[in-house]
């Protein structure tokens, strides 16, 4: 139901737009700098710690 409302509003908005958009204003790519969130950093840290512990256990088993 929510999607239907959003889609209806989008169609209405497009119908109300009277001016043409210049080709220069329609880019395929958006210039966004890559950034990381705190959650991503925490997840990467946990993965690295778990991976290091697993490798250490494997080395002990092989010795």
What are its keywords?
elongated
Outline of this structure?
This protein has 63 residues and is mostly helical. It contains two helices and no strands.
* N- and C-termini, Cα separation: 62 Å
- Morphology call: elongated
Q: Strand count, sense and closure of the main sheet?
A: none
Strand proportion, as a percent range, falls in under 5%
What does this structure look like?
The chain is mainly alpha-helical and 63 residues long. Helices cover 63% and strands 0% of the residues. The chain is built from 2 helices and no strands. The protein has helices spanning 2-16, 38-62. The longest helix is centred in the C-terminal third of the chain and has 25 residues, at 38-62. It is elongated, with a radius of gyration of 25 Å.
Secondary structure: elements and pairs:
Blueprint: H1 2-16, H2 38-62
């Amino acid at each position: 139901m929510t999607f239907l409302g959003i889609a209806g509003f989008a169609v209405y908005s497009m119908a109300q737009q009277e001016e043409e958009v210049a080709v220069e204003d329609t880019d395929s790519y958006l210039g966004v700098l890559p950034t990381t969130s705190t959650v991503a950093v925490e997840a990467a840290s946990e993965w690295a710690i778990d991976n290091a512990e697993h490798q250490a256990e494997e080395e002990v088993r092989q010795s």
